[in-house]
Amino acid sequence: MSNLKEFFQSKKFTKSLCGIGAAVIIIFVFQAGVFVGYKKASFSHRWGDNYHRTFGERKHKGAFYKGGFQKDFSGAHGAIGKIINLDFPSIIIESSDNTEKIALISDKTVVRQFRETINSNGLKIDDFVVIIGSPDDQGRIEARLIRIMPSPLK
Amino acid sequence: MRENIEPPERLYLGILARIEREKRRISVIRLAFFGVVASASLAAIIPSFKYVAREFAQSGFYEYLFLLFSDSGAVLASWREFALSLAESLPITEITIFLVMVFVFLVSAKLAIKNIYINSNRKFKLT
Would you say the ipTM is above 0.85? Predict the structure, then answer.
């Protein structure tokens, strides 16, 4: 019994616990990275597949390759930029990275301006918006929240 | 039989002085090396921090984070999408570069200071 007590109070036991804790954290972070990376990559793949069908030829040179380890992949659960086209239920926004993204508005979508919740008809072209939502199988974002922001200064 | 042989005192002190000189030479080389590494990494911390700050601004991380304060109710209702949009906009590569620079600076500064301490606390003063 005393041996057991000594074992639980020993430095080896504490180090083992720390090791297991560190391993759990590393595995969790790794899995989170894999999950987010997979989501981004699959969204970008579907977005790229549908890009030419929707928008025709790309208008910005280098819009598809931006360099870096993960900059080629566009965020799948959000978009930030200016509204360039409104065709309800879909809106097209131009992101800060010069790519166009389609967001779909549904009954679940909450549109907010200042402190108020407004109707989606209140969205206008050139509004600067932040959208969060979930990706669909055509590289679009099913918007859950659209926040109209003041346009950033250039 | 050999264990009982006592070296002459002058030879003994000469050997110790030589060992000290060699230790000092090694610690001076280490000090120079870690000093250069610490200086270089300290110099790299500033641009890498600017790079991280710029990427945070460009990735839209601040805008997503702002939603937490402006639309907390709606964000909580869609917490999964919100968390993923934050995770996706996090500039991981740039943060990693910055943290590596900080790590290298701290480790090299520690080793450089340790070598300064070793140099200034020699038991045997060299002749």
Answer: no
